[in-house]
Request: fold
Amino acid sequence: MPKKITLFTSILIACSLIANSQQKPLQQLQQQFVDLRFGMFIHFNIPTYMNQDWADPDAKAAIFNPTSVDCDQWAKAAKSANMTYGCLTTKHHSGFCIWDTKTTDYNVMHSPYKKDIVRQFVDAFRKNGLKVMLYYSILDTHHRLRPHKITPAHIKMIKGQLTELLSNYGPIEALIIDGWDAPWSRISYDDVPFEEIYHLVKKLQPNCVIMDLNGAKYPAQGMYYTDIKTYEMGAGQRVSKDGNTMPALACLPLQKSWFWKTSFPNEPTKDPEKLVNDLIKPLNNADVNFILNVAPNRDGRFDDNALASLKKIGELWHNEGPEPTLPKLDAPVISHNIAKNKPSNSSWGDDDNIMDLANDDDFTTSWVSNTTVDKPWWEVDLGKETAFNTISIAQDKPRISDYVLEYYHAGTWKPVFNGTNTKQVKVNRFKTVTGSKVRIRILKSDGQPSIAEFGVYNEVKGQR
Reply:
């Protein structure tokens, strides 16, 4: 009888693994994410021992020396606030890994602690009925993975570390990536190829949503280089509580900063009532999942004042269940922009708002058509015959409605789109074509047409 039970249990586990590996539609995953509503961010790493949020990249692993890491306390504290998940900083900007990685000696196993904290975290949160997410920084100052210094070995390390995190710790609901394409990190999606990393994550964990924490560069109405729109409120980023139409994440620390400081036990946290009434509830109503950071101290436990604030939040906030169904969204743009900073041309532009501003990788500037032009056009010269299958048009305001997209091949302009699209960010996908130029002819607009960014991409198909 024991052997039969063991075999039956093994079959159930195998079936569960197969079910979990089947990829759900992205829109379903986005809906599941916003339905989670509220969770816990946990910043715990080398900066915990330096009284700063950014650690010395040459700090020794020996300073990471917690005496009583208690992930079960973290999980129970999250439950007391009625949170639905936790997200742990597996590696912050200084490159110290708090799991048993084989990619570098700069990790927790080479510290005095010598235990895998990621393992303890995922086990404790799952045991307490909470879902699990992970945070990972692309910027890595210890390993000199920073602007103008990135090598193939760095890319290999990133892929190796993400493979470990997404292969050894069971289902990961979401991966929050930081330090990528941000003004302060200056590591572009070309320096570390976003599309390659995106497909690696989806291959390892098909139902893991990817969030780039530095998405404020991109328009609120478009999904660029992320599955979920992100807003770091501590950095001044704000999501519209009235006009948001995208699945989103907003984050803020309960204390005055992300990592623990020696002053925290004797300082008040943010007011639980204000957090609930001014942030969590109204943001939830706008399809925003709110994640509140709580910083463990140097022992690896939450301070009493943080625990009290979380309990109070739980008295004031309760999960009201699934959010309204999200609108149908375009799949995110994840590929290299072939048109970026390439020579461009246009019909008469308005004063200083010339054609170059439509593909300068800056969504705050625009090419603006002169009011006297009846049928304006804008084009980009790719320099040679180039394959592509996606074009995006982002506008400052959704004025353009009817337009034609064409590509220049073998001495002829050929159409790939001719119709109406009233969205502020228009993503046009089609069968792969080859051309040396791409053009938009604007047939109808509500007022003076403009283009903030015109993107051309050759997306890898069949891997979403």
